[in-house]
User: Fold these one by one.
Assistant:
Number 1:
Amino acid sequence: MAELYEELGLTSEEYDSICEILGREPNKVELGMYSLMWSEHCSYKSSKLVLKMLPTTMPHVILGPGENAGIVDIGGGYAVAFKMESHNHPSAVEPYQGAATGIGGIVRDIFTMGARPILCVDPLRFGDPSNPRTRYLVKGVVAGIAGYGNCLGIPTVAGDLYFHPCYEENPLVNVMCLGIMRTSDIIKGVATGVGNAVILIGNRTGRDGIGGASVLASQEFDERSAEKRPSVQVGDPFTEKLLIEACLELLKGGLLVGLQDLGAAGISCACSETASRGHVGMEVHVDRVPLREEMEPFEIMISESQERMLAVAEPEKVDQVLEVCHRWGLNAVVIGQVIEGNRLVGYWYGEKVFDVPVDSLAHGPTYRREARKPAYLDEVQSFDPSTIKHPSDCNQLLLQMISSPNLCSRRYIYEQYDHMIQLNTVIYPGSDAAVIRIKGTSKGLAVTCDGNGRYVYLDPYLGTQIAVAEAARNIIASGGVPLAITDCLNFGNPEKPEIFWQFTESVRGLADAARALEMPVVSGNVSFYNETYGEAIHPTPVVGMVGLIGTISNRRSIAFPQDDLLVVLLGQTFSELGGSEYLFYIHGITAGNPPSIDMDVAKRIHATCIEGIRRGLILSAHDCSEGGLGVALLECCMAGMIGAEIEVETDLEPQEWLFSESQSRFVVTVQKSKLELIDELAKRRRIPYSVLGKTGGNRLRINDWVDLDVGEAFQVWDQALEKILS
Amino acid sequence: MKFGVVIFPGSNCDMDSFYVIKEVLKEEVEYIWHQDTDLEGFDCIILPGGFSYGDYLRCGAIARFSPVMSAVRDFASKGGLVIGICNGFQILLEAGMLPGAMLRNTSLRFICKFVNVRVENDQTPWTNHAHKGMVLRIPIAHNEGNYTADEETIRRLEGEGRVILRYCDEKGEVTPESNPNGAMQNIAGICNREFNVFGLMPHPERSSEDILGSTDGKVIWDSVVEYLNQKA
């Protein structure tokens, strides 16, 4: 066994502790199960102590972290379930299938709770696009998301995309899914009731994805990574679509006690987690599992074959359950039952092949890792952006900025996703947040994701706070009030103290920002070991946020809606070029301090924007972030094909004014007659604001710095990504 | 009047079509399971968009063998209205109820966006509320919408006024740039000889409410309702 446990990714201490739990050496099946369940990916053994910092409870939280997805009450008898996950390593090895099965996994997490999935959001990070391999990865990942998500009929309505050389070999493919349900329809992944049947539904089990969670997701990359391709699962969206419909029908009919999807660690995980949550034991007849090929019990228990669900039902309802599944053309087989006690016991044609305490599998070890501040930080933070020499032609600079891979239009990507199906999308991709109406009500949801890895690399605590604040601004600019957060925390190897310090600081930033803005973190995912040849990615926490729009007619887009409106900046611009897109793209520098953020000021500015929209004073709103005010103004123009005349007085250099990424700013439009009311609002909340100019014409003019034809700028911005990727 | 929306395994615009008929048109509508064969009492059958059987073979190639399809064929032969949207259009082509075939989009990518289509014939059950030359803004969402047929078929379609919708620009000009998928003659929708079977790639159900950015798709639904009312 000695060589085997190492090969499976367990340490010798972990092996010893398994022996202690069992009072004997594990057999091969048991060892396989423990190796998966105790992997970083499944057990959160390095992260779970740190994650305790996060605020997870508030009155509207129905279900916080620990289940398949978090659930939040949105009033009127409705709730939303949502979660974000990563499929980074599978996508690096096999971009199409890696990304596709990432969608499949997160979607199952949502309908497992009884919610109908109504949208997906896809945050992506890739290396330098001038590298052909990056372009291959982007195209494969996007095609995989499209291929799977479009087939399911779940619109992909938002996402974000950054390029930086640190993601060259290790792209980030995160995906968030959100579902809606009646609060009365919530079901949990719990097995209860001794004697109840355990039913496996969906695809046959095969050898694909063996060891995905341990070998792929919980190890760094090196030259042998391509050999790991057999660990990537293969997606079958058609079967997943049938699973969604069949499971929702089963739940609606009240036929199930519990439901759990099969993801990482396959049957081992689904059985041990459901039994552990229900404080029961479970008996599994491994020989009854429908197979695609001849397999050993060891492989069957840990296979990560996709599109499978585990259901628990009372014996008298089993026939009905099977009937529904069969009508949808799905396999459904009773593979075991809930038993007394606390052990997960497996049989292979009557012979016992494993017998382990449920909790020992479901709750792996916990590690308190060493954290040490990385040496690079002092050096990068000591960089002073005021020492750089600015190119003088601001017109040219602004055009360059909007054609940068990180700022240009994402149309090339989102047009490949069906973002309209289900007839709910009322603000399309390309605005600050996507907005979804909730049929049968006057409400809507705003959804976004944010996470600037450069900021977090330069200051993990501050950078993560900014991610939360930016997401909140995106929700607010779209007319929503932020409700709750899900996250995907992408980091390097946690066994390295410097990486673990980044992780700890980042989670502290997330916790503090969420508390300051009064939002719970209801679900999430940690992805460690994002390293290649010992080089880690930028620490990249991605924040997914959901906001509620009380009255859907209060939704806002970034587009300037008409001529002759005042363009107003809520907030203030400082000389803050550290970590900016301008420094990175124009000067090739990733250094400096990210922009500062005062959460108290942020809160007051957010409240002002919320009230201004609710009272109909603010007609369009745009969060001002990456690329700065210059880019934000041009984006508002291009979205509405309306120009603007901007006249400002400032002590800043033009380039600083245009491209500083100061926080807590919104570009909004108001009618001249309503300026007084905005002034009142701002004074009451003690926030800085300024009138920048007015909308109209077909050019954007800013002092004597910028004079651009909006239509021509649009062509540059709109076509850039396709050119970059071809 | 009663509409029926067929559910094939893998259909995913079934609920959208159902919603529009029920909540926007306020007409009666029922789902029809792909194994059902009784279409008694229906006036218009909708084959919705989606990925029937995953589209793992050619799009629509397996769905055409569903038991419901022989019933749909009978229903059409008796003059019943049948509309196939997107995957539904592909199924009608595979079933031979409309001529021609679909190739992959020339870009080789899935495309989801609003396009403009021009109404070429306003004397059909599907377009009597429109007028010839009218430009409709309706979304497409497909991977295989590149309509193709042999020369003779195209000539017949054109000659008999059976090309109902054609991709065009905002002004109604039929140009190569306004063709999103490479379809021959910019064809977006065609009818059978009797004009009671209509296949189209754009999704009228996605543009039937103001809040979704266009109500141009409703012209098609209103035409059907008008036609059925007059017939009754």
Number 2:
Amino acid sequence: MPAMMIPRPPLAELEGKAQWLALLLLAIGLHMFEAALPSLGPWFKPGLANLVTLLVLVMMGPRAAVAVAIGRVLVGSFFIGTLFTPTFVISMAGGLTAAVMMIAAWRFIPGISLIGISLLGALAHMLAQFVTVESLFIQQGVLYYALPPLLLLSCISGWINGALASYISARLTHEL
Amino acid sequence: MLQLLKGGKTDRLLLLVALSAIVFSWFVIQAQISAGPAMAEIYHGQILLATYPLPQAGEPEQRFQVDGELGETVVVLDKQGARITSSPCSTQHCVLSGAHRHAGDIIACVPNHILISIRGKSASGYDAIVE
């Protein structure tokens, strides 16, 4: 009688999971790197972790992208020591809103490239942070007075990150 | 890579719309808050605790202890502007953000629910407005 074998999933499925995990780890690393950047202020970050969400979206689809957005904030915040603090809530709201906005743009806006998707994601991320703070922690409309210059920075970082994502995804799929 | 930075037509259109909306809202906000003397408004959550004029050059600095969710935040107003010098929060982003004195600037300590907002430009004649 042959020994009982645990059935193994097909290689392609394993490869996909390994790729997703590698990108999740990259996103967690970038999340922690961005948290350690001192000079850019508490509101603005370059959005490199969101760039990974965008890459996962175009390579593996919306579900994988949302899972990376949630996973990197959860694990990244655990290592930084901000898990379940206001910083965590703001990061989660920003990351998830950006992911949902990028999925919507990717699905429904014809002719948009990764640059446009990244731009909308960056703007949604910044807006979501302020709405979260205003609704949960400091209920003051004056918070929004600080938004325009930060949104301007988001436009720049979103555009550059989108170009980077185009380059990286093209390299990953051997088009360049 | 530089070629990639150009983006497509749809991307450029989106950028144009976003920039127009941002610049328009910036002008509207600045027009609303730039008038009058330079003041620092100190909030805790939903409550406006106090409004103080920012000291001009030669005027003494002012120091306040503000009670928040976690404990005491120390706010200093001097000729450089308003800043938080001590906070019970773990991140210390509010302390590290330094002094601010331009209309529209904010200093927020989200964990402690403390916000300082700057409005106005010119020299002030008030001592304090407390609510």
